[in-house]
Amino acid sequence: MLYRTVPKTGDKLSILGFGCMRLPSTRAGGVDEERAICQIRHAIDGGVNYLDTAPVYHLGRSEQVLGKALAGGYREKVRIATKLPHWSVFERADMDRILDGQLKTLQTDHIDYYLLHSLAGSSFRIMRDLGVLEFLDTAKKDGRIRNAGFSFHGRLEDFKEIVDAYDWQFCQIQYNYLDETNQAGTVGLQYAAAKGLAVMIMEPLRGGNLAGRVPETIRKLWDGAPVKRSPAEWGLRWVWDHPEVTVVLSGMNDEAHIDENLRVAGEALPESLTPDERALIGRVRDEYRRLMKVSCTGCGYCMPCPSGVDIPGCFASYNAHALFPHDRAGKFQYISRHGGLMGEKSNAGLCRQCGKCQKACPQHLPIPSLMKEVSREMEGMMGVAVPVFKGALWCMNKVGRVRRAITGEKPHA
Questions:
Q1: Model confidence at 342, in pLDDT bands (50, 70, 90)?
Q2: Has residue 105 got a pLDDT over 50?
Q3: What count of other Cβ atoms lies within 10 Å of the Cβ of residue 286?
Q4: Per the CB 3.0–4.6 Å rule, which of 48, 279, 283, 385 could disulfide with 43?
Q5: Which tens digits make up the pLDDT trace of 69-86?
Q6: Strand ranges in 162-288 using DSSP code E only, listed in sequence order
């Protein structure tokens, strides 16, 4: 494992951080606690010493699971990062109440890296007027937090304003080879680093969209490289290539992915990519921008939808359909997941254009209008297909019951 130094404190952090926003889930949709704890501890055993969570992740379960995972001596090996949700703060007392509750949930007496969560210009100014900077000073002085920072989704001008407003030790920004000019971007990364802030990176693979299964044209570009690497490795190496980056957070929830990330994090020195490799990543970036429909990272800040739409899920299906137009299963998967075939409806056509999601979106996407596009593209046959599929399932179940009655076969447990 490689480590980089926090400029203002000398603290040495693993270049790979464990992001606890996408922990492994059970079939029922909750956190698979036993598996998540094993994964977190395996990453720590592999050298990871920075773990990032927040009260809203997994509806509060993320902090709980992390607290359990760090029992038995693991707490002393790591730095915990968690966040103050500005949308839950209405007065100064709320800040202390939330922090004290987090300390209890995480089973610790201090937070190593404490962030004001998901700031933009307006939310920072509101929090500043409520006394958040004085709160951070007090919490550092009494030992409840060690380092103060903020995560950011907004305009570059606002980012610079926030950086200059307080003696921060660190900040957290979205950064990957598709987001060089979005939000804080490269200019913001360099600005914060020049001010002595450690910079933690979220969404290095755009919510997984730059890893795993990739479009054929993208695969051919990667396959043409002299050095064979997975799309995930290319994406992570691109971020780590920047010397201003301190930690890259990965929402790891698969054992094979954790092992791959640990391996790469032992090799990815800053400025180690060759000019040819950087040029290749540039070609891949251009091709992704040509293919993608919606630049959603799947962060879930837009949820829950008052109308029941699974917004990130709909966008993921829409992008997958655009990236893999020859995959005939794409629309069927959309219908089965969101059309009511396998549970409650959560399709884009349910959108009532209330605009709540758009206000919450860190990417500032025009979600209501995009929902109309998704509905037009993905739901043309849904009114017919869902009853047909449900009828087919009913027939299959009926046939199975008849067969078991004749043969005496017992149903599967």
A1: low
A2: yes
A3: 12
A4: 48
A5: 999 999 999 999 999 999
A6: 170-174, 198-202, 247-250
Evaluate whether 338 touches 318 at the Cβ level (below 8 Å).
Answer: no
Helix (H, G, I), strand (E, B) or coil at 210: coil
Read off the amino acid at residue 125.
Answer: R
Contact 218, 174 (CB under 8 A): no
The per-residue pLDDT for range 146-171, each reduced to its tens digit, is 999 999 988 899 999 999 999 999 99
CA distance 53 to 63: 6
Last-in-domain residue among 247, 275, 291 = 291
Claim to verify: residue 279 and residue 303 sit in the same structural domain: no
- In degrees, to the nearest 5, what angle opens at C-alpha 402 toward C-alphas 398 and 406? 170
Number of domains in the chain: 2
Burial category of 129 from C-beta neighbours within 10 Å (exposed 0-12, middle 13-18, buried 19 and up): exposed
* Residues belonging to the chain: 413
The domain boundary residue, chosen from 261, 291, 321? 291
Instruction: Indicate whether 315 and 262 sit together in one domain.
Output: no
In tens, the pLDDT along 286-306 reads 998 888 889 888 788 899 999
Expressed as residue numbers, the domain containing 61 is 3-291
Q: Are residues 89 and 206 in the same domain?
A: yes
Q: Which amino acid is at 142?
A: D
Same domain? For 325 and 344 the reply is yes
The pLDDT value given to residue 325:
75
Sole residue written with tokens 């094979």: 256
Average pLDDT over residues 219-234: 96
**pTM for the whole structure:** 0.81
Q: CB neighbours (10 Å) of residue 217? A: 13
